[in-house]
């Protein structure tokens, strides 16, 4: 499937701003809880409430795709009780919000490996995807048991399987085809990736897709994250000069 393109046509000024794909590393739940003398569990639950707020606010801010990092392939190394709590979050979220997401035109995808997830959780995620499959107003990708490196390996394996089955040759592989094999294959690349909580790294999130994403770091813990913070991130993004490896016309004249 072709990857939708949300960049303005080359050489033409955008008439109206194209819709955005925003990706968020939802970080800081643990610190939020610790500052309040609460168990980390309650930080994660407050994180679900923040996710609800942002999913509700995003469509009104010209955002059409939202990809959030809910559980990384590395998070399995946390204490068992915390892993169990994190595993319970999609159920908590969908129980309270799936009907609304379905009604409001949100297409949900849970991206990442299903390996290691309980049967119950796999079923819940599958149900969220099926019930919202026809929606097109807004796209919500929840990265769960997701790792950027693992996703790249899985895409490479999928292509190798196509070659082995005689459906493709190695020469057929290019960046567009490869991008389509990633878990995010049906979304355009993110325009910007936000990481709240003051940490400044990607932590294995959307490694391929981040190639030309702007990175925005904000000093707020995820459970406190509000629509105003998202608005501020968009304002920051709009100050960035995206060149995609080329030069802006004025600089090219100066160089010539
Ligand atoms: C990182 O904060 C956050 C996580 C590992 C979990 C993120 C999950 C949510 C915000 C809820 C997601 C909801 C769904 C539906 C999956 P941290 O615990 O590492 O915080 P710390 O760095 O302050 O310790």
From TrEMBL:
Required cofactor(s): Mg(2+)
CDD domains for this protein: Cis_IPPS (cd00475)
Recorded GO MF terms: ditrans,polycis-undecaprenyl-diphosphate synthase [(2E,6E)-farnesyl-diphosphate specific] activity; magnesium ion binding
Database matches in InterPro entries: UPP_synth-like, UPP_synth-like_CS, UPP_synth-like_sf
Keywords: Magnesium, Metal-binding, Transferase
Active site: 27, 75 (proton acceptor)
Residues given in the record as substrate binding sites: 28-32, 40, 44, 72-74, 76, 78, 195, 201-203
Cellular component per GO, a single term: cytosol
Binding site for Mg(2+): 27, 214
Cofactor stoichiometry and binding remark: Binds 2 magnesium ions per subunit.
Job description of the protein: Catalyzes the condensation of isopentenyl diphosphate (IPP) with allylic pyrophosphates generating different type of terpenoids.
Family: Belongs to the UPP synthase family.
PANTHER family xref list: DEHYDRODOLICHYL DIPHOSPHATE SYNTHASE 2 (PTHR10291:SF0), DEHYDRODOLICHYL DIPHOSPHATE SYNTHASE FAMILY MEMBER (PTHR10291)
Name of the featured protein: Isoprenyl transferase
Organism of origin: Phenylobacterium soli
Gene coding for it: uppS
